[in-house]
Amino acid sequence: MIAREKKRRRLAARYRTKRAALLLQMKAVGEGEDEHVRAAMLQLQQLPRDSSRSRQRNRCQASGRPRGYYRKFGLARNKLREVIMRGEAPGVVKASW
Asked: In whole angstroms, what is the distance from residue 63 CA to residue 83 CA?
């Protein structure tokens, strides 16, 4: 799953400009130019499915876990807890009251 996610990120970076240009072309077209919209849409559909940014999933950098992901640290909750307990996360302290 981690390798699949890396492939998706690589494809998204590779096709980012082409995908953005096609989407802009679809939005910028005025009335009566449906054939241009259809052509752009067809070209967009021909791109690899995994090149879309919305198909990516945030995963823990240590374990690859997709759920319980903290974006600020790039880790899942259980790995984040381990890092915090070792004191390796800057600015984070265990709560006590």
From this structure: 13
